[in-house]
Amino acid sequence: MVEIGELLGILTAVLFGGAILNFCVKFVNRKWVMKLPKESKFKQGYTSVMKFLVKNHRFFGFGAAALMVAHVVVQILFRWVSITGLVTAGLAVVTVVLGVVMFKAKKRTPAMLWAHRGSVIALIAAFVVHVITRI
Ligand code: HEM
Ligand code: HEM
After folding, report:
1. pLDDT digits (tens, 9 = 90+) for 11-40
2. Is this structure's pTM higher than 0.90?
3. For the chain, what percent of residues have pLDDT higher than 90?
C-alpha cells in the first residue's frame, strides 16, 4: 500500500502538471509559435496539442483532485497525516473552486484569472515543500 500511496501522489502531481501546461503552452505560443508562418508543420502540430490541453484543462484539474483524494486516504491510513500535504490539498481545493467559478461565470474578469493563477502558484510552492520535507 505504501507504494500505491506514493504512486497516487506522483500521478496527482502529473495531472496537476497537465492543468498547469494550460499556461505554459499559451505563453510559448504567444512568444514564439504565433510568429511562425501559417504553412509551418511545427506550428500546425503545436496548435493542435495546445487546443487539446486548453479544451481539456478542467478535466486535468478534476482528475488531479480525484487522484489527490485517493492519495490522501491511502497515506493517512498507511503512512502519516502530512501537514504540508494537507496545506497542498487545501490549496488544490481552492484552485478547483476558483476554476469552476471562472468556468461558470457569464463574464470572465482579469481578477478571476489572477485569483486562480495565484492559488496555483501557492499550490506549487506547497507541493514542493510537501515532497521535499515529507512532514
Ligand atoms: C495536492 C495534494 C498532494 C499531492 C500532489 C501530493 C503528492 C505527493 C508526492 C508526489 C509524494 C512523493 C512520493 C514519492 O516521491 O515517493 C507524496 C508523499 C507523501 N504524501 Fe502527498 N500529496 C498531496 C497531499 C497529501 C496529503 C493531504 C497527505 C496526508 C494528509 C499526504 C501524505 C503524504 C505522505 C505521508 C507522503 C510520504 C510517503 C512516504 O514517504 O512513504 N499527501 N505526496
Ligand atoms: C487544480 C488544478 C488546476 C490547475 C493547476 C489550474 C491551472 C490554471 C492556470 C495556470 C491557468 C492560467 C492559464 C492562462 O494563463 O491562460 C488556468 C486557467 C483557467 N482555468 Fe484552471 N487550473 C486547475 C483547475 C481548473 C478547473 C477544475 C477548472 C474548471 C472547472 C478550471 C478553469 C479554468 C479556466 C476557465 C481558465 C481560464 C483560461 C482558459 O479558459 O483556459 N481550472 N488554470
Report:
1. 999 999 999 999 999 999 999 999 999 999
2. yes
3. 99
Closest ligand by atom to 98 CA: 2
What pLDDT shows up at residue 97? 98
Q: Residue 124 has what pLDDT?
A: 98
- Ligand 1: residue whose CA is nearest its atom 16: 6
**55: which 3 cell numbers?**
479544451
Residue 54 identity (one-letter amino acid)? V
How far CA 96 is from CA of 56, 73, 114, in Å, comes to 14, 19, 14
Q: Kindly list the distances between the CA atom of residue 55 and the CA atoms of 18, 58, 59, 103, 114, in Å, as whole numbers in the listed order.
A: 12, 8, 9, 12, 19
Q: Which spans in 32-80 are helix H?
A: 41-55, 57-78
Q: For the stretch 3-39, what's the b/e string if a residue is b when 16 or more beta carbons lie within 10 angstroms of its beta carbon?
A: eebeebbebbbebbebbbbbeebeeebeeebeeeeee
The helix/strand count (H/E) of the chain reads as: 5, 0
Q: Which of 14, 22, 59, 114 to mutate to test the pocket of ligand 2 (most atoms within 8 A of CB)?
A: 22
